[in-house]
Amino acid sequence: MAKIYVDCEDEYGSKIYDKIIQTSLEDLTLGKSLIKVKMICREKEPYFIIGVLPKSTSKPIKMRDIVSIEETKTDDTGKTIYRLRIVDETHAPELFEMINIIEQPSRFEIITDSAIDMDTVVYDAKDDFILKLLDFMNRVFPEGMRVRKTFHGKSIVMIASERPFNEEWINEALKLKEELEN
Predict the structure, then answer these.
(1) pLDDT per residue as tens digits for the range 117-154
(2) CB contact set of 100 (below 8 Å; sequence gap of 6+)
């Protein structure tokens, strides 16, 4: 589980937010994917900041990880036709959305007239992971904190308030981002 730090003006509030963070991390199965979570609560202002430092995610899945080129030929119009062999079905549905399938003679064979670049990224787990992190942050913030801003880098920091942000709050969020990344 990630290390959790809550900086809150109210000691009881600190314990409550610690529990909310733990529960949200468990619900989204994120606890083991994060190194550190820090929340700053300023209820009197009011604004709240959450910063997370994630562990590195897996590498992007490229077309070469899913298919191999079995054959290429040129049709009557000069267009290149590819016969592809599926070597890993895991992310084949994402690939199918990216190419024009002319024919699928078997479960592991596809014929396409789409341009094929074996280095094309078909799936990147980091995108789904970031969406889960943002969902986690939104679950932890109190109701009514509708004004939000997110800062991305090695860490992800989000600030929320019910009022427009002042420069001091933004600076505190940026300071937390820097702290998490160093």
Answers:
(1) 999 999 998 888 999 999 999 999 998 899 999 999 99
(2) 112, 113, 114
- Stretch(es) of the chain classified as CATH 3.30.565: 3-57+125-181
* Helix residue ranges, H only, 28-101: 63-66, 92-98
Residue 156 one-letter amino acid: I
For residues 32 and 14, is the Cβ–Cβ distance under 8 A? no
- Any idea which residue has 């590498």 for tokens? 59
Structure tokens at 179: 């702290």
Euclidean distance between CA atoms 119 and 63, whole angstroms: 6
Q: Are 89 and 145 in contact (CB under 8 A)?
A: no
SS3 117: coil
For the sheet with 80-86, list strands across it.
67-74, 80-86, 109-112, 101-106
Task: List the structure tokens of 21.
Answer: 């963070």
The pTM of this model reads 0.74
The one-letter amino acid at 71: E
What DSSP designation does 141 have?
Answer: S
The CATH class that applies to domain 3-57+125-181 reads alpha beta
Give me the residues paired with residue 123 across strands: 61
